From TrEMBL:
Keywords: mRNA processing, mRNA splicing, Nucleus. This is G-patch domain and KOW motifs-containing protein. RNA-binding protein involved in pre-mRNA splicing. PANTHER family: G PATCH AND KOW-CONTAINING, G-PATCH DOMAIN AND KOW MOTIFS-CONTAINING PROTEIN. The keyword Ion transport does not apply. It is found in: Nucleus.
Amino acid sequence: IKDLLFPDTCVCQMNDGHLVESLQEAFLKTVVSRGGSNCVMVVLGEHAGKVEWILERELERGWTLVQLGQDQKVLPLCYDSICHYLGG
């Protein structure tokens, strides 16, 4: 995703560099990469903005178990409430 035009509409850049404009959220599927880090950011709900770790993935059901760093709490979260975190 390159830019958000509205809360449910974005501009996406494809792997080949092609830009797709005015793409509706309903046409997107959340994917959390298996490669590299298991670090994710929570983007929805009471823990939004926190960077956490994936413990387990359930691809068929679209959810993951995420461990909250400070609390050591484990939460089941749907893929739509997290994103892969590449920051420091």
